[in-house]
Amino acid sequence: MMAFHSTLRQLQSDLIYQLVQLTIIFSALALYFTLSQNPYPYDIAMLLLALIAFSLWIQQLSRAHMKLARRLFVLGLNVSLIIAMFLIATPALVFVGLLLPFIGSLLISRSGLITIVVVYLVALLLNLTAQRTYPLEELVAMYALSTTLAWRTNNMLYITLLWYSDAQQHASTLLMEARDSQAELKQTLKSLETAYDIRTRMQHELVWLRKHAEEAQRMKERFAANISHELRTPLNLILGFSEVMYLSPEVYGEVHWSPKLRRDIFQIYRSSRHLLEMIDDILDLSHFEMSQFTVNMQLTNLPAFLNETVEIAANIFENSAIQFEVDIEPDLPAIEMDRTRIRQALLNLLNNARRFAEDGTVQLAVHKEKQQIIFRVSDTGPGIPHDQLASIFQDFHQVDASLSRKHGGVGLGLAITRRFVEAHKGHIRAESEPGKGAAFIFSLPLSQFTLPQTRIDTREITPCVVVVDRDPQVAGAIERYLDDFQIIQVPSIREINLDQHNPWAVIHNVRPDSIEPIPDLPVPYYRCSLPSQRWIAEDLTVMAYLEKPISTEQLIHHLKQIADLQAVLVIEDDRGFIQLVERIMNTYDPAIMVWRAYNGADAVELMREWRPDLILLDLTMPEMNGQSFLKLIDRSIPVITLTGTSAEELSERRGAFLIQHPGGLYPSEVLNCLRA
């Protein structure tokens, strides 16, 4: 209603201004027409001048007192009409009063009826005094009609104003809401612009991070390749010499080998082989995330495995104040597990226990519980705070993270152990009471890894997969991934005996650019390109490409392929490795002459005067590497190349994957292949 009254007052203010202007104009026109009359009507002229002056005063008054101006203006018009009725004898003058109800109703509510009554009474009085002869009946009818029209018009005007004020108020509300919405929209747009800027920056950061992640991956691979070379070379010497000492002690002539010495040499030999297997795992980790780490499942005699592990672990506690105790339940069943990884997990836990328990006892307990084998390593050390038990298996976590901590390590042992256990579908946890020691318990399921089996004459056989490739390392890699199958390696497609092997599938490893035809086989045929050391040997046109550490059996296998072998040239910058080759040669044939060269340039000078029957060539040497040396020599001489790691060379080779199934594949099978 406030909006209605405000609008009405504004309308009345505008209306009185317009009516005052019209009154002044009509009065001035009437005054102008009086100039031509004779005699001159001074009384009428004075009335018109007074009306003009009154209107100008009302115009000034309305600026300060609108309500008073409206009332006086209506009153002044009525008085002017009444005076005019006394001064002018024209009967039509009384009908001018028909306009006054409209004007009065618009400016002052209910004033129109009063105006009609007053004008009619004056007209009646003038008729009764015989001063005028007004048509009273027509005047009553016209005044009644005028009053009715004025009332209806005024009512419609009020309704219109009320509707207009409501619409204006609603429009104002909508305008405020629109302004609020516009403000929210601007804020939203600003937030969207901010989010877009943040997303753009994040995209740039992600591109930058991906670039650096790829660079870090390449650096990791290069680091793995370099560290592999640095580790494998000394490990090759330890493993090679201990293998020769243990298996062929006669090479050293008349030397007394006591049982203790032979046992110690065997321990060195066995531990170095275990170390080699762990180095292989580290190199695998440089190419595959731990969550994708594969396990080489083998049916394992658990008591024999634990006895070997205990013998290795006993060396950890030698010359220590800690007592190592073993509690293994007798008659434990055989289980399928990756022996290297579970042994490493146990050794990690035992080594941690020895480091933290400065004295007291460390115990290894193993027993069967329902369908699980429970391994428990406990100690009487300081224990682990309760708030750290939940995070102790995280990467790089240290119970004591201070720089002054007493115990070394980078916090990866328990994280790696957890991943090895989880790769076996097992679980690991820690229990501790501060001040009284800690215990690490993990479980391995008995029947989690069940091989698909086929019964023939009540005998269970494991399905086999034929791998077509000459490189045994390719077959070994496939065997680690397909642990549910027996892997049979054949050098070529022609040597597959379907009746004898009865394979579930054939995996054919070929070069990416191979144009060999696809064979028609009654079993699924998989063609892939797994990087092979044989490819590098073919590219270098050498007899073999060997990766350190090189075993006696491996080297002798290639020596047997050369008829009438009398002289071997070893080109290697590591003098210890050359000595190892000499020992292996003495084991194979003491009559073979071994010549030495510590770099490619010296070997080229030596071969100008002497021609060997075989060259053992290290590819990474100072001054002249192996590939440069191969370009300068007579290629009719057999060459066996040696390297610390072939990871970098193999990673540069990319390949493809092809599946052919007899009878074709259903769409769901194709999608399953794509998903895999």
Description:
With 676 residues, the protein is of the alpha/beta class. Helices cover 53% and strands 14% of the residues. It contains 19 helices and 19 strands. The strands form 5 sheets. It has a 5-stranded mixed β-sheet with strand order 2-4-5-7-6. A 5-stranded mixed β-sheet has the order 11-10-12-13-19, covered by helices on one side. Strands 14-18-17-15-16 form a 5-stranded parallel β-sheet.
Which characteristics define this entry?
676 residues, five-stranded mixed β-sheet, 53% helix, 14% strand
Average pLDDT taken over every residue: 78
Question: Biggest sheet: strands side by side, in what order?
Answer: 2-4-5-7-6
The level of helicity is 40-55%
**Residue fraction in strands:** 5-15%
Euclidean distance between termini CA atoms: 75 Å
Radius of gyration, Cα only, in angstroms?
Answer: 55 Å
Shape, please? rod-shaped
How would you summarize this macromolecular structure in one to three sentences?
The chain is an alpha/beta fold.
List the helices and strands and how they pair.
Layout: H1 2-34, H2 42-62, H3 66-87, H4 99-107, H5 111-128, H6 136-247, H7 259-285, E1 298-300, H8 302-314, E2 322-328, E3 335-337, H9 339-356, E4 360-369, E5 372-379, H10 413-423, E6 427-432, E7 438-445, E8 454-456, E9 459-461, E10 464-468, H11 472-481, E11 486-490, H12 498-501, E12 505-509, E13 525-528, H13 533-540, E14 544-547, H14 552-559, E15 567-571, H15 575-588, E16 593-597, H16 600-607, E17 614-618, H17 626-630, E18 639-643, H18 647-651, E19 657-660, H19 667-675
Parallel strand pairs: 2-4, 10-11, 10-12, 12-13, 14-18, 15-16, 15-17, 17-18
Antiparallel strand pairs: 1-3, 4-5, 5-7, 6-7, 8-9, 13-19
